[in-house]
Amino acid sequence: MSIKLDLTTAGNPDLSGYQALVTQIHQKIQSKTGTGSDYLGWSTWPFDYDKTEFNKVKALAKTIQEKAEVLVVCGIGGSYLGTRAALEMIQGLYPSRKLDIVFLGNTFSSTYIVQALDRIKDKNVYVNVISKSGTTTETAMAFRLLKQFLETKYGKEEAKKRIIATTDKARGTLKTFADKEGYATLTIPDDIGGRYSVLTSVGLLPIAAAGIDIDAMMEGAKQAANDCMSDDLETNTAYQYAVMRRLLEKEGKSVELLVSYESQMAMVAEWWKQLFGESEGKENKGLFPASVNFSTDLHSMGQFVQEGKKILFETLLLVKKPMLDMTFPEDIDNLDSMNYLSGKTLSEVNLAAMKGTLIAHHDEAGIPNMILTLDDFSAKSFGYMAQWFFTACGMSVYMLNVNPFNQPGVEVYKKNMFKLLGKI
Amino acid sequence: MSIKLDLTTAGNPDLSGYQALVTQIHQKIQSKTGTGSDYLGWSTWPFDYDKTEFNKVKALAKTIQEKAEVLVVCGIGGSYLGTRAALEMIQGLYPSRKLDIVFLGNTFSSTYIVQALDRIKDKNVYVNVISKSGTTTETAMAFRLLKQFLETKYGKEEAKKRIIATTDKARGTLKTFADKEGYATLTIPDDIGGRYSVLTSVGLLPIAAAGIDIDAMMEGAKQAANDCMSDDLETNTAYQYAVMRRLLEKEGKSVELLVSYESQMAMVAEWWKQLFGESEGKENKGLFPASVNFSTDLHSMGQFVQEGKKILFETLLLVKKPMLDMTFPEDIDNLDSMNYLSGKTLSEVNLAAMKGTLIAHHDEAGIPNMILTLDDFSAKSFGYMAQWFFTACGMSVYMLNVNPFNQPGVEVYKKNMFKLLGKI
To answer: Which of A239, A256, A249, A259 is nearest to A357 (CA)?
Structure first.
């Protein structure tokens, strides 16, 4: 289990000049000092997460699996993206599991909300509402609609048994609400921010309810935390990636394009965009995070990458072993002239597309390409990847001299919106 | 029916200095002269599309609606994105229609392909394969798998009745293939490229099969073509948008961020990214096209937009009338403190989020915002929007002195891939 990082097609520069800076930041992270250090909980989480809480997650997940046809996950941002990324990466876009998982609380879009409520109306439904404060408007509105839906359908008492609130351990609107109503509650740790929270109860409950092995996921995270323990730039791939991003930025790149070659990785890219964009997009700094899913998007964004304005570099997020595969069959008539691929697996062809694209983009168009390779689509790999990206992100953003753990800019639209809505 | 364009929050510059250039390009487009003019068919398409073909589309769509549980749309790029954009925009993400539509032929991802084939295996299936040449690898591979699936399930004769090939009118691998097998065929016009093809049989068959009114769609397109007939920059909003993009680029912006506030617009943004990115990403030129879906992505990309590196401008694609709506209910206990929103519709709250964000991004962060407003989510509006964007794209890219209608860069990865796969 590891993430391999290949910098050959990214110029393969000597990074040793950054060792002193990396060591200095590494010590700040390890000792939990420095800007934003109140939110460094993720750095030791795979070692010190609360095992009692973890078992509570498993028990609740089991109840949901036994009793529900639909689990509604009601949350936004970090309370939405990590879960969806894990589900899709580990189980694919057309998963075979019985439990339908519907996301709400992540939009004001009236059509989406009405259609989602309609989709679940005749089903056996459980709800997991996720909000640290309980005042996030999108989530609070959807939760009220879901609560009334459950109460109408099941009555007030039964509805209470079908709601699980993941929230602050002691304070806040949702915690008070949940205690008063008697919902089961799970805890969002004080020292882990939304975009770093997928390995806490925030992500673990819906992920476990989907039938995914969360023990393996935490095991993967622990392995990544161990692998990233050293500040040595020769061996710590997360730090190599962190430094390379800054180097490419210095060379004038302003967009980082996360590239995957499997459809089930699209939401991982969305999760990654929040992690990096929200961590470093401050003080007029940061790389603009964008993503594509090849080969699909080679037929839309491929032209721009190949010949458009040279403002980007690519970070390939590859996965060695596909979740499912098949051999491309022979056809006697060969009317489509595709027999030259017969006997090859689809994943072999996908690999050739990746290699051909790498030559096109790097060798021919001169676009720097970093290559990250994961072992497989397992829960363990997801956990490893999440922890590895947290570590890389913390380092990379600290190198910009920016607090990687706050998000002051997210409040600005809210303030204006509340004013327009007459909230006192 | 119209697209309103508000440039107030984009600096509202005097565009009249560009009138002469716009007039010159306009004449080139109208007279179908100039670079790439072989592919200017879209400019008069809403007036001169083939009515016999159109009726054939309707008849085939009716057969699919009557007989199929699943329609597999097998295509990539322009043979995929436009259809999916129309379906989602007009019918939402959880549509109430009976026909399930599954996309294949748009990826080499083995897990996606295996899972999609598994999803349809016990269903009553029709297939629409879409490829001008028939040699696009992703599509040809998936089509062979689908053909063998249908033949195994239904026998060779019945399988033939369940396949519709949308392809070149006379030449190419797929046309020859289809004629030999006796498939029903539809025609991709010679003078309309992939990313401009959603209003041809490419998009119209699956869109009509989904139960969408394609007469209304073409009517909308016709109205847009009429509205864009004049070269007057005072009145032609498509040309205003085209010019503003170039102005903002000159001011140093390198990313155009298409912003929508309804979940069902996410694929329209993907379609738009192909249209603009593939049209202008040439000769080291072009704006990098990116997209966000607010308010969802305010909780991921919002921080970067608000306070990150100032490399982008926003193009808001708003829709005045929501497809579905509901009133936010009162709650006696008000434990969530959300009663201040009771009696408001969800779309009113969404509008407040939009206005609050506009103030945050434009007034407070200084980010230029162009605002496009569509009337509604109807088929007619989709048709209008598609034709309007084609017109804007043609103008905007010609202003860069680039051919808007070719895509030489897309061939590079293919060439390398074929070499790796041993294709002769």
So the answer is: A259
